[in-house]
Amino acid sequence: MSAPCSTRAPVPVSVRRSYARRLSARAAKASARSSTKSATSLSSPSNPSSSQRWRRAWLIGLVVSVALLGWVLYKINVREVWADAQRADPLWLLLTVVVATLTFPVRSIRWRLILRDQGGRPFPWLPLWHATTIGFMANNLLPARAGEVARGYVASRQLPVRFSTALASIAVERVFDALIMLGLMAVAIAAPSFPAAAGAHRPPAAAGTSRRSRDSRGGGAARGPRRPQESGPLRRRRFLVAGAVD
């Protein structure tokens, strides 16, 4: 009895080599993943020098914050502020705080649309939000809008962007703010309820009174100052004195 013949064609050598290369690449990827997981699972030893620097920076930041807060609250009656806060409506006060806080994420989103990396891709939102909040906090504490400089500096430290680029994006943002304010002012002026010139709505009586006052001032200047009227006894006494002198 003859052995059954195989009808399957032999696999070429090139196909077997490519298959072996794919298997080796998969094994290399799996080993790299396992090594990465093991490396991240191991606890890295703490660096005492970096920890000491972090504590020192935290202490300096705390001292600077307390000093600036004391400078801001100088000559402010805290009792009056607390009394005014107690008289305020808690609901409106809470709503004001919420709305004022929500402006920072919105500003961060707008800044993210302006500031991009070299490839034109937007930066992550969280570092921009950190820089925005720090900058506006510095604006509340420092004069001359110094918080904008601090905002650009924080962005340059947390993102791969130059300080000049971040500062230029903040300048562009302020230009847009100015244009929006000018547009709102133009809309307010063009509104029918906007008050017209002060002299256009002057009452007729007031206009007549002012005209008479101007005429009286002009006539008085031409005729000279008026003498005050004298009472009857004083006038008779002056007449008797004048007769005795004559």
Question: What would your notes on this structure say?
Answer:
With 246 residues, the chain is mainly alpha-helical. Among the domains are: 55-87; 89-190. The protein is built from nine helices and no strands. It has helices spanning 13-41, 48-72, 78-87, 90-114, 125-141, 147-158, 163-190, 204-223, 232-245. 5% of the residues are buried.
The ordered H/E elements are: HHHHHHHHH
Mean model confidence by pLDDT: 75
The helix content is: over 70%
Question: Radius of gyration over alpha carbons?
Answer: 42 Å
Taken from the alpha-carbon principal axes, the silhouette is: extended
Low-confidence stretches: 35-46
Number of contiguous helices: 9
Q: What structural class is derived from the secondary structure elements?
A: mainly alpha
Per-chain topology:
Blueprint: H1 13-41, H2 48-72, H3 78-87, H4 90-114, H5 125-141, H6 147-158, H7 163-190, H8 204-223, H9 232-245
Helix pairs in contact: 4-5, 5-6, 6-7
Structural descriptors:
9 helices; extended; 246 residues; mainly alpha; single chain; 73% helix
Brief synopsis:
The protein is an all-alpha fold and 246 residues long.
